[in-house]
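Help wanted!
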Amino acid sequence: MKHETIRLGHGSGGLLTSRLVKDIILKYFKSPVLKRLEDAAQITLKNTNLAFTTDSYVIDPIFFPGGDIGKLAICGTVNDLAMKGAIPKYISFSIIIEEGFAIKKLERILKSAEQAAHKAEVQVVCGDTKVVEKGKADNIFITTSGVGIIKLNLSKQRIRIGDIILLSGTIGDHGVAIINERLNLGLRSSIKSDVAPLNLLTKTLLKYKSSIHFMRDPTRGGIVSVLNEMVDGSKMGIIIREKDVPIKKEVIGATEILGIDPLYIANEGKFLCVVEKASAGKILKSMKSHILGKNAAVIGEVVKESGVWLETKIGGIHPLLQLEAEGLPRIC
Amino acid sequence: MKHETIRLGHGSGGLLTSRLVKDIILKYFKSPVLKRLEDAAQITLKNTNLAFTTDSYVIDPIFFPGGDIGKLAICGTVNDLAMKGAIPKYISFSIIIEEGFAIKKLERILKSAEQAAHKAEVQVVCGDTKVVEKGKADNIFITTSGVGIIKLNLSKQRIRIGDIILLSGTIGDHGVAIINERLNLGLRSSIKSDVAPLNLLTKTLLKYKSSIHFMRDPTRGGIVSVLNEMVDGSKMGIIIREKDVPIKKEVIGATEILGIDPLYIANEGKFLCVVEKASAGKILKSMKSHILGKNAAVIGEVVKESGVWLETKIGGIHPLLQLEAEGLPRIC
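Answered by r_m:
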């Protein structure tokens, strides 16, 4: 089947669908729960306080430096659970495929998704496969949902004036890697997407419990979107210092050429964390001791003045407004 | 916003996305959990034995007699949970929209989805919205996932020789309604999709506990697909009697004209139920007393001889083989 392409019949519920699922999909996703191929997976969660999330992935291109749509679909949903202070457990994986898509490419995506799931310590337990006519989708779209056990009580409502804003690492890597690949710019090929399962890092922070007030990963809209969300509807504001925001030199170079602002670019393996001032030092230290947080930094704090503000390198202060639209479609 | 269309920026994570979610989506989905717009919803389930499922809906046309893609996306996932013997509780709702899609149509779909969720007694608690360029999707695709509390222990492994096969109502309605609408055949416009939340019916059957061995709703591939799945990998077989399979006259008429077999056509509001013989009578009676089961019937039984068999109206017996492909793409 390796050299074949997806036909409409692969989505029809007949023998072709059955073979695609049993011969191709179950070759990669090995959960004994999934293997039963029931209408719904039976899962056990020894806790009644759960996190539930979903995301559709329509990224273009589907393969990019540092990952592909399969890895992204697992990590993105794992990260949404991690940001809720949860231990991610079970993932659903639903695919919409364009007729004519190479099964070899599908296998590459499934393999990469399974590797990401394994690394993130989650199980893919249920899924669905649909096929649409050529020209009615763009290669492949994946929607994942996830369930996890909530361990921290995080919410916007817990953010207080004086809280410290931590950023877990460099920003802009994912967005720049995608644009570079999509436009075939050939800019510094060393720039890779940062797509990674953040639960591996957040689980090392669970011990700080109530000192952590809020976490969110800056995907679409970048860190400016998340910072605005944090204080949206409240009377507080946030100030961040440009000089403290970690960005790789090659990413800065690329964004200057492209004329885009890294503060607005999507990331897939970083998060912002709002913590109480007294514990910020030790939480930062914990983050930095993990590979996924080695470039973590304190980038700002929650202040009385409403709005989101940037203190520039030369000392000016200007507002960081949320844009109408990011201008980079299909970045995740 | 009513007369506007979806723009790429509506999927970018900026202000446009925020407005679409707050002004349009939250107008229909009113769950207080969803309203928090967190990365993941916090849900509570007072049970550790859960069902988890997902399905993508790519149906064409998106509006059809008896429903639309929104109602279908809720009912389909609710039904997958119901078939697992679960009480459906929480639903995720993820949308991929083609640029240029009318917001008015989106509202119609969301309204219908929310009505179905309300009827099915489930809450939409999380979601996602992505937009792709014109020509890169077909109007709208929806992926829903669901979580529910398992109340019955159902599995293929519990099916025994001598068990009775119940069908909850007439077959073929959904498939014929879709084809009629898609091909603009104008065949007997009284044929409507049967799309409905089956949990309303299955919850009346929970009291029969261990007498119910297996349930499955015959969507893609029709009842023949499900019957084959039931005995696939076992040495048992199933025989069903043509005269006992409930089909509406107008559906028979339409399938004759179209040259398709209703036994292979998708349904969205019916299910097959395998029960122990001694309790079949009272379970059938319970089903028939509910509006969604009023045409329920005993259609066959599990037998020693392997394979799936049809006893025709004139007394012949022939095998019901699973087809390579159903031949009707995008039926759900």
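OP: Thanks! One thing I noticed: Chain A is about 30% helix and 25% strand.
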